[in-house]
Design brief:
Length: 429
Amino acid sequence: MYKVPYGKTEIEFDLLPGMKGTVIHSQPIPPLPNVSAAIDKALAEPVNSAPLRELARKRNTVCIVFTDITRACPDYLLIPPILSELHAAGVQKEDITLLCGTGLHRPSTYEEKVAKLGTHLVEKYHVVDNEPQKPADFVDLGQTDSGIPLSVNKIAYEADLLISTGIVEPHQYAGYSGARKTVAIGAASEQMIAYTHGPKMIDDPGTRLGKIRGNPFHEAITEAARRAGLRFTLNVVLDEEKRPVAIYGGEPEATFEKLATAAQRLYTVPVPHEYDVVVGGVGFPKDANLYQASRAPSYIFFAPTPVVKKGGVLITPARCEEGAGKGIGEQRFFEEMRSSPNVATLLEKMRQKGYQPGAQRAFIMAKVMEVNPVVIVGAEFPEIVRETKMIHAQTMEQALEFAVKHIGRPDLDVLTIPHALLTLPFVKG
């Protein structure tokens, strides 16, 4: 019996007769025994930085940028100790803004803010969302040497002290995410998001999952955070059970280096060969919509080395109770996928004419489906899955039956990755 996450529960399934199965997980690194103590140490003994309390002295205003509900970052654990340090340094509550780094995702609901921060913080502090389509809300940070336009929310830029939280985990474009991205993309304008997620950037061979060196996307967000004035980050690496295995705080770039090293050690997993079928699990909160859930097949496709054979099948169970997604970016993804007759036409059009930010997920998924069909299992809106050129299956048995029919033989070699966004498989040798 095999298991993969499905919403806040799991789907159990057996392989069909004749199939051979393999399951991989991220590396067995023990979680931190005392998370609270680890956070306190990260704030008092930061990486390449003075302690947060010292940084905050004589600062009149502070902005803390935190992740939205699509990220599993435990901000409810990270932000209260940050606030305690700020208050100990003399910063007043009314001078602190908590800015939700939504990027181009939909605005966060009150309930989601509470889930991220706790009722007390939401009710007692100034909590706002980034609104990328309001140009007047942003500061122009100039361009990188390669011509990338940079921007950041005025609230973040004008604060005397800019802090961010985040989770360091594999990321399709940045190699690994982290607190610099929380500011650089989460608190950016639509213009910057459009360029960094455009076809030129995404087609660049350096823009790769798990790759940091020579990655133009990673370089852009590093420069954006630097120009925005980000001074201190508190970041976490989580295991498959969402338990912290590493927490560091301090100067953004040095802190990221330590966390990325821990993340690579945790998430990178060898496999012996390529597979006919790869089942990638997602689970809550990423499988709430198709935009986010489709990261599983794309992460598998763009793994450090190919692990699914050309013409093989990618399967992901996902509830997708929000359909394609409710944000402007998610809707652009859906419209691009829905309106094109096939993925080849979509890729040609997007490469020639570009696309609006958010639609980069359509570009990525078209690149995947040009080679490997994608099956979504158990979606609450099957017609939306079909309109995006993906295949809907009600059950895992149906999905595996499709794979047999598509590949043309029953003796398929199946790799199951229960946590596909937290596992970077590579073929040994």
